């Protein structure tokens, strides 16, 4: 069972960009789906984006056109490029592989 460690979060102004990384402790090449979720204060955790082992992607409506998920199996890492960030994107972002979650990384979008 792999362990996941997210990084790349921080404070950014509206309209800015961040790139989140999710580093796995083992190989992710055979993991069918890797995904990013987020949870804002007082809200349920929600899916942001997912990527299959074959590279197919899916996005929440709120992320389409602004976020891009990618995976580098050689580096056992999944990325989430976030552009045109909005205050409503503020949340803790979590990486997920099958039933394993990372510890999360805080993203705050504020002027």
Structural summary, described in words:
The chain is mostly beta strands and 111 residues long. Strands 2, 4, 5, 6, 9, 10 and 11 form a 7-stranded mixed beta sheet that branches. A 4-stranded antiparallel beta sheet has the order 1-3-8-7, with no helix packed on it. It has no helices and 11 strands. The N and C termini lie far apart (40 Å). A hairpin with a 4-residue loop joins strand 5 and strand 6.
Q: The biggest beta sheet, please?
A: 7 strands, mixed
Q: End-to-end distance, in Å? A: 40 Å
Structural class, by secondary structure, is: mainly beta
Which percent band covers the strand fraction?
over 45%
Mean pLDDT: 96
N-to-C order of helices and strands: EEEEEEEEEEE
How many E strands? 11
Q: What is the general shape? A: globular
Helix count from the secondary structure assignment: 0
Which range best describes the helical content: under 10%, 10-25%, 25-40%, 40-55%, 55-70% or over 70%? Answer: under 10%
Runs in which pLDDT lies below 50 for 5 or more consecutive residues are: none
Radius of gyration: 13 Å
Descriptors:
four-stranded antiparallel sheet, 111 residues, globular, seven-stranded mixed sheet
Summarize the structure.
This protein has 111 residues and is mostly beta strands. It has strands at residues 4-7, 10-12, 18-24, 33-39, 46-52, 57-59, 67-72, 77-82, 91-97, 100-101, 105-109.
Outline the secondary-structure elements.
Blueprint: E1 4-7, E2 10-12, E3 18-24, E4 33-39, E5 46-52, E6 57-59, E7 67-72, E8 77-82, E9 91-97, E10 100-101, E11 105-109
Parallel strand pairs: 2-11
Antiparallel strand pairs: 1-3, 3-8, 4-5, 4-9, 5-6, 7-8, 9-10, 9-11
């Amino acid at each position: 069972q792999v362990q996941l460690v997210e990084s790349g979060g921080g404070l950014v102004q509206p309209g800015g960009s961040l790139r989140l990384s999710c580093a796995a402790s083992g190989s992710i090449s055979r993991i069918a789906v890797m995904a990013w979720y987020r949870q804002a204060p007082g809200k349920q955790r929600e899916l942001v984006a997912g990527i299959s082992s074959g590279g197919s992607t899916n996005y929440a409506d709120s992320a389409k056109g602004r976020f891009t998920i990618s995976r580098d199996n050689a580096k056992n890492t999944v990325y989430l490029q976030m552009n045109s960030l909005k205050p409503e994107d503020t949340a803790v972002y979590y990486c997920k592989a099958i039933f394993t979650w990372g510890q999360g990384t805080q993203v705050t979008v504020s002027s």
